[in-house]
Amino acid sequence: MNDYSVLVALHLLGASVWVGGHLVLSFAVLPRALRARDPAIVRDFEAGFERIGIPALLLQVVTGILLALRWAPDVASWFSPDSPQERLVLAKLATLGLTMLLALHARLRLIPNLGPGNLRFLAVHIALVTLLGLVFLVLGVAIRTGATL
């Protein structure tokens, strides 16, 4: 297995954990918490998931940068894209930025003050992060299959 294959495999492993965990959170854990109006259900899942979810996201960031350098070696071109690959890299970076903003807001503001009254607001955050995870996935497939933006 060459280094490119290892990078892709590690990137996909991180994506599987991140996106898969958020799909479980969105479609299994969150509905149960909303029905019960019990934020502890989400908190318990988050406590366990963070131990593998955050490292998975960091793995994606590191491997994603290394992979992006193979597709578009000039980092400056990522922010002024001319090629389809550069546009896809920029789109993934924008998706990462939005994900980080939502995750930080949830971690620093919502989760510490989580109660039945703001559980629905957290649900919107969770839905958006899950959607962004799926966008990451689609953009990654686009990069590897030659699709364009």
Structural topology:
Blueprint lengths: L2 H34 L2 H33 L3 H4 L5 H27 L8 H27 L4
3D architecture notes:
The protein has 149 residues and is mostly helical. It has one domain (3-145). It is 84% helix and 0% strand. The protein is built from 5 helices and no strands. Helix 1 (3-36) packs antiparallel against helix 5 (119-145) and helix 4 runs antiparallel to helix 5 (119-145). The longest helix is centred in the N-terminal third of the chain and has 34 residues, at 3-36. It is elongated, with a radius of gyration of 17 Å.
Uncertain residue ranges? none
Number of strands: 0
How is the main sheet built?
A: none
Give the helices and strands as they follow along the chain: HHHHH
Alpha plus pi helix count: 5
The chain-level mean pLDDT equals 92
* Helical fraction: over 70%
Question: Tell me, what's the shape?
Answer: elongated
Strand content: under 5%
**Rounded Rg:** 17 Å
C-alpha end-to-end distance: 30 Å
Secondary structure class reads: mainly alpha
Total domain modules: 1
